[in-house]
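Class, discuss our next protein.
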Amino acid sequence: MIYRGYAPYRILLASKSPRRCEILQNGGLHFRVLATDVDEGILPRWSAREAAEEIAKRKSWAIFPMAAPGETILGADTLVCKGDKIFGKPQNIEEAKEFLDELNDGMHTVITGVCLIQGQNIRVFHECTNVFFRHISKAERDYYAQNFKVLDKAGAYGIQDWLGWTGISRIEGCYLNVMGLPLPRILTELFAGEFSSL
């Protein structure tokens, strides 16, 4: 589906995420979706910031040959980290509950890596947002894990759904970044035009 908006860019989104589509649509951007499966494995030596950027690059490069002239490829990957531990998407409900227990009653950081490719030029960056959870009871955790889509979200939760509304006490940084796409930063980078050559 293509949405026509104000921005002088045609975006080719390398993501299957409905949340990223929603953000671009609400931002008034002209875009289409073309995503392929890529390896989202993380090397032990990578920091969360490096991992998010590397996976975003993989997503963008996967569809690079299929971009139409004038399209800007947008790949993104969102990770959650607390201390040195990186939380990607949980493999099952039990792992989702373990993630939520570890994130409970404290602060963690949501990092989205972004890769923009315009023709023969590239820009890679990341955005960080600190998220603070109140104390969440096991009953609340279990209700959330059993009744919401936790397996397709880094850290096993979505800021835009029930746990985000009831469990997050505050954030520091960009709300949309926690949803999966830091649109204000992306627009800043696009309009600044500070890309590197491939």
Observations:
- Helices lie at 18-26, 48-63, 93-103, 138-147, 162-167, 175-179, 183-192.
